[in-house]
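# step 3/5: fold
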Amino acid sequence: MRVPSWPWTGTWVEPLFGPSLEITVVVLVGVLARFLLHRLIDRIARGIAAGTAGLARLDERIPGSTARLVTAPLLAERRDQRARTTASVLKSLATAVVSAVVVITVLDVLSIPVAPLLASAGIVGVAVGFGAQSLVKDVISGLFMIVEDQYGVGDEVDLGGVKGTVQAVGLRVTRVRASDGTVWYVRNGEVLRVGNASQGWAQVELDVAVAYHEDVERAEEVLLELARELAEEEAFRGQVLAAPTVAGMEQLTAEAVVLRVEVRTRTGAGSGVARELRRRIKGRFDDAGIALAPTEVQTHRPA
């Protein structure tokens, strides 16, 4: 689209400056448009960082408790990182679009035919598009993953066949380290479901096998008392989010009555709380004379 002729066209200004004045105006308009778009993107990024851009709030109410999750510094830092990444990508796209429009307009001002150029670019774009469909899919999926905060660095995730700790989140691939040390590179476009075990809270479900001849109700009382004592201790008060409960008999097997104790904890604290519970259950049951069910041990000997 050609910039319209100015009122002084045909006067002494045009012979002096020629098309340079129109080109200058086009460039200035392009710079202004880029500046305004970047300001808008920065505003959107600030909304994402503040948690007001339609994202899930981090101070959700904990089921089974009157407490609310407080936004942790680590989560806030990750949200800021996500906002910066999103803003960087959007700014790059805006700059590319504005630059392309400015270049085409300048070529038109200089009376250089742009139709053949646009036709050639269209053909090349179609050819590249057919070959880069998976790349575009990965980039778009990665952008939405970052904006929606589906997972972040340090989260324990299940990406459908790949489980482990997220080490890096990019626009094209996500790097995950499994528990055995294997590093997996997962293309974002191939991630169909995400299971994140590091957002909000975690649930410890500990099964205790008690011998059949023991009093089940007494065993449940001991378990509940022990779990509540642990939750009230100073070392675990910040890790346990709700009052522990004993769900009752979870299973009846041929060897034992399986009782389940449930403790809701902060993310990342579940394994430590579970280990401490097991240690205390063993000692408390021994003191109370409650027998645990025998465990069958298989010994494999070389032939």
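# step 4/5: annotate
The chain is about 50% helix and 15% strand.
# step 5/5: archive (pending)
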